[in-house]
Amino acid sequence: MHRRLSAAVLFSLAALFLFACFSLHLSRSSISHSDLVSHYPIPSPAADHHLISELQPLPLRHVTTSSISSVAVLLPAWEVLVIVSPETPLSGGLDGYACVFKDNSTSDARFAGILPSMNRTAFYCTMPRRAKRRRPFLQPALSTRSRIISKDLPETTAGPELIRWTLLVYESFSTETDVVLFAKGLNNRPGVNRPPSEFRCVFGGGDNAVRTAVTSSFQEVFRCPHPDSTALNGPVNVSLEIVNKTNLVVPSVAYYTATPKRRWISSSDNAGPTQSPSHELCACTMVYNVAKVLREWVTYHSQIGVDRFFLYDNDSDDDLEEVVRQLNREGFNITTTFWIWPKTQEAGFSHAAVYGKALCKWMMYIDVDEFVFAPNAWSEALAPDRHMLKSLIPKGPDIGQVSIQCNEFGPSNQRTHPLEGVTLGYTCRRRLLRLRHKSIVLLEAVEHSLLNVIHHFEIKKEFRSMQLSTEDAIVNHYKYQAWPEFRTKFRRRVSAYVVDWTDALNPMSNDRAPGLGFQPVEPKGWADMFCEVRDDRLKMLTKKWFGSSTSSKMVWQS
């Protein structure tokens, strides 16, 4: 009897020991570096050192399947961006691929686009429900569907962790004098930026990594000198290192070319830093599914003086690419940059300020639902003139930025997108001017930091900004359109610091539509809202300029 009790006690102790070990293993495997970063994004210089000291450097490794090497980033809404490595170009087109997750769950890989840095091909995969339940999240392998059908599945259980979008160096750009990096998760609050001394730029990895000092840290933009190119061979990963006890290297999908090249917009552009820009005035905007309105916006602003357009495509899935091709064939000058990253409008505009500096003297930052016009000077003009916009820029060597105020237009009783265009379809607006304004910026005057907020840049001390009167110039902002159009905007907020309309935060923000809740549900009486003043001045002007004597259609109507 005593022996049986002793055996039972020993068996119970052994079971408890095994259970404790198993629980410890689960706790260690379910709380990872990426989980910490996802749930506790680095908030501010004063409050984050206790967190950073707990994090360990995350080695970036690619998942390789046969000849396909890739790295993956977890985006919002369980979408995974899979980026093919530069050394493994795809063959046989962009169809027929799939993502293989942990435990061999799969989802189709949809072509996303070509990332500007190193021309890397990217795919989207939706994380399967089963994969969401297993921690840590591992990077999927990119495979062909034919391999999956033949059960020739890659081994993914030992792969690296899935990179989180909340802490990531996502893009880089090399100028003649330095390197510009774009990173999420380091300067998260408006007006609160960590000092450059807290970071270093890291080129390459391991013992061969080369580091240079960070000279500027504002918003999502960081700048540092070029490294000694003799220490690097070919394209290398570039990232930021947080200087503290652990020296955390931020995960990165950006690359740097050891031999700096003049990476202008295209090979046909020969302007360099010692030459004058080839265009007097350009326009830049970030777009999402604007194919139906782009032709009107480009036609109008081209005819009044914009020489070149820069579109930062924030993952459109309409016919934008085809519309741009048609417009370019017709003689318009449009460049599209695939800018997939969510809520990065300010960073995209900073990118444009350095990307187009050699090509453009002035850059106008407005949205596709905004149209600039001069009520007094242009009302009697029989036709548009390509010097009209340029005449709005005051003469003087110290003018670095011109600001133009905005009128906000409402749905004007429209239930659907007006076929004749927004300038003719929306003619009723709010009475008072909004606090927001749009700018035409001298790119030479932009501060080294590239800091910008709501289409307005910080400029160098030797320059000054000037605001035009509403009679000299005004921006018609067709902000509150027919409900199906506004609903798309409601779901798609691109600015880093602007309140997301789906979040129940700051209900009195000037960015919010008055009376609109936190769900994309049409408010009662939406079609007649924001209608306080009937204003058809631009309607009459565009009808005169772009109408047809033989047809009721405008020139931008197909």
Main traits of this protein?
558 residues, alpha+beta, Spore Coat Polysaccharide Biosynthesis Protein SpsA, Chain A, nine-stranded mixed sheet, six-stranded mixed sheet, 12 helices, 29 strands, 20% helix, disordered N terminus
Question: Would you write up a description of this structure?
Answer:
With 558 residues, the chain is of the alpha+beta class. Helix content is 20%, strand content 26%. It has twelve helices and 29 strands. The strands form six sheets. Strands 19, 20, 21, 22, 23, 24, 26, 27 and 28 form a nine-stranded mixed β-sheet that branches. Strands 1, 2, 3, 6, 7 and 9 form a six-stranded mixed β-sheet that branches. Helix 6 (291-303) runs parallel beside helix 7 (320-329). The longest helix is centred in the first third of the chain and has 29 residues, at 2-30. It is globular. Residues 1-5, 16-60 and 260-274 have low confidence and may be disordered.
What's a concise summary of this model?
The protein is 20% helix and 26% strand. The longest helix has 29 residues, at 2-30. Among the domains are: 61-159; 279-546, Spore Coat Polysaccharide Biosynthesis Protein SpsA, Chain A.
